[in-house]
Amino acid sequence: MLGWFYYGGGEALYKELLGDVLKVNAVGFLTGPMPTQPLGWFKQAIERPEQIRGLKYRTVGLATDLFQEMGAAVVSLPGGEIVPALERGVIDGAEFNNPSSDRILGFPDVAKTYMIQSYHQRVECFEILFNKGKYEGLPAELQALLRHTSEACSADMSWKLQDRYSKDLLAMAQQQGVNVRSTPRPVLDAQLQAWDRVIARLEGDNSSPVNGPFFKKICDSQRDWCRRVGNFFLRYEASPVVSYNHFFARQG
User: Fold this and answer.
1) pTM greater than 0.90 (yes/no)
2) Where is 155: in which H helix or E strand?
3) Which tens digit of pLDDT belongs to each residue from 168-216?
4) What per-residue string of b and e applies to 52-69 under the rule 16 or more CB within 10 Å gives b?
5) Residue 213: what are its φ and ψ, rounded to 5°?
6) How many CB atoms lie within 10 A of CB 148?
7) CATH homologous superfamily for 2-251?
């Protein structure tokens, strides 16, 4: 995502979104790439797409459209209210972000089934915003400093999460009795099929300035980037599964 943003045309579209579409008086940078977010926390494992229909489920953003398309009763809650709602049975399942933040919020205390792997938020990052007038009033070298600092923070986060997420996932499984399960392939396939419908609907929706032609322009740009770059890495990289299993699988 950040590759597309900085080298695939995404930043120009982002500036168009802020300035021309939303009329926001801000300059922004994207930073802090996050890996795939888990399907989330449940009292019972999600084995089939049909189980999502009618499920009272917490998520946010475009993932709301996705899970509504799959039949869930989506509930948008701020972070601090998710665990109490799950504990009281107000919701049946929830996702927040990652093993470290989920553990800090207390999910393992109220649910023991943690479904990892999902397509509802495959990539995500933070946004750093500055007042446009203040930013443009800075000398060029200070503007560059802010930009490169955001990129440095982005790199540091990508390294730090490797340490934190892996430790916290193991700790929840080994010390807190959490059953970590991979989301079954039929559920993942159903998500992708639902995304097809959501994207087509939003690309054809002219009721909002961020949907319709502008949404399609962003998606087209992302598709061009992912088709080329994704093809490169799938062809170019040797499978990490093969090498991981070679060195570590026999160790248990």
Assistant:
1) yes
2) helix 140-175
3) 999 999 999 999 999 999 999 999 999 999 999 999 999 989 999 999 9
4) beebbbbbeeebbbbbeb
5) -60, -40
6) 11
7) Bacterial extracellular solute-binding protein, family 7 (3.40.190.170)
